[in-house]
Amino acid sequence: MSLESEELSVLDFIGGDERSQPFLQDEFDAQRYSNTVIECQEVAQALEHIASSVALLDRDLNQQVVSHHEDLLTQATGIEKLEGVLQMVQTRIESLQAGVQRIRVKITEPHSKIMSRTTQLARLQTVCELLRRLIRVLYLRKRLRVQLQGGLREVTKAAQSLSELDYLSQGVDLSGIEVLDSDWAWVSEARNKVITQAETMLSDGLESQNTSSVSTALQVFHHLSILQRNVQTRMQATLDRLQCDIETTLDSNALMAAASFDSPARSSGGRTSLPSVGSSAAWRASLWTRLDKVLDMVYNSCHQVFQLYKMLSRKRDSVTHVCFIEELQKGGQGQIMEDFWLRATQLLQRQLSSASSGEHKQSVHPVMHFVHGRMSNIAGEHSC
Fold first, then answer.
1. pLDDT value of position 122
2. Between helices 43-67 and 69-149, what is the axis angle to 10°?
3. How far apart are CA 126 and CA 95, in angstroms?
4. Disulfide-capable partner of 272 in 74, 113, 226, 265 (CB 3.0 to 4.6 Å)?
């Protein structure tokens, strides 16, 4: 019988033996097996069976060792070599860990110092930047007080100082600094004062056609970043004033009253009869007189707006060299002359239509033709 057949026979013998089955189970419990044998009173038989099984396994194991002697020696030698390699790897790993630990000790302290110094440097830079802003703000406030005392002559410089103060207060919290908190309200009042002065200069400059005053006012608005808003406000104020003047001058009741005053009243039974508006020469004369006055108002208003437009086209930003009118165009307000002209003509046409009704419309047709010619002349004089 060969070795393999003997091995199979041993395994078959143990596996086929019912008394050996408990030993082949993965959940074999020696104590439970002993209790079972004792309860069955088969202690002697169990011991004999175990002894014979052990002898059989021992004999089979001995045969396996004898038949595989060379292979077992080879594997044992390989295991010894593997243990040596593993020992060498373990030694190198420990050496590497020791080196890493030494490096960690060497760099931990410098790294901590670098992080600490970096944090200190960042804080110092923040403090230095805040101090630079603080010094500049204090200087600008002192200079602004002197500039405000100079009145209109220093209003442009005062606007520059206010603009720089606004820039310095952006992106940083300056609240809580005692030397600054007490003056912020004063700076706000100074800003309002400068704006009021500039608005007055612009209004007076347009009225008197003083280009220097208009230029100074626009420069102040530009420095304070309110150019677009103030130009729009000025345009609206001019239109509102023109509308009020047109409505007052061409009021139908005022025309009838003027015609009644200029035309002699005819008595009939103690009554005073008013002249017919459509055919009264006095009414037409009053209309032409008032219309001439209205056209003069339109001309003056257009001239003011045109002077404003020319100054906006000439003035440039000192840094970017961009015309003021181009800044207005970015906000959709670059066509101020065209917009004003369109709205002025609409006001005049609407008021003339309101002043005439029914039979009076025929008398107003020559007037409308005359107005159209005069308005065309005004537009030609103030074309951009």
1. 94
2. 90
3. 46
4. 265
The torsion defined by the Cα of 291, 381, 322 and 154, in degrees rounded to 10, comes to -60
Per the CB < 8 A criterion, the answer to whether 134 and 173 are in contact is: no
- CA 42/CA 34 separation, integer angstroms: 10
* Each residue's pLDDT tens digit, 81-97: 888 888 899 999 999 99
Partnered with residue 267 across adjacent β-strands are 272
255 CB neighbour count, 10 Å cutoff: 23
Instruction: For the chain, list the strands marked E by DSSP.
Output: 266-268, 271-273
CA distance 312 to 230: 12
356 vs 303 pLDDT, higher one? 303
DSSP string, 92-144: HHHHHHHHHHHHHHHHHHHHHHHHHHHHHHHHHHHHHHHHHHHHHHHHHHHHH
Dihedral of alpha carbons 96, 99, 103, 108, sign: positive
Cα separation of the two ends of the chain: 125
Residue 247, burial from CB neighbour count under 10 angstroms (0-12, 13-18, 19+): middle
Burial 200-220 (b: 16+ CB within 10 A, else e): ebbbebbeeeeeebbbbbbbb
Q: What distance in Å separates the CA atoms of residue 57 and residue 203, rounded to the nearest whole number?
A: 123
- Dihedral through CA 305, CA 306, CA 309, CA 311, nearest 10? -110
Which one-letter amino acid corresponds to residue 314? R
Q: Facing residues of 268 across strands? A: 271
Q: Which residue has the higher pLDDT, 268 or 303?
A: 303
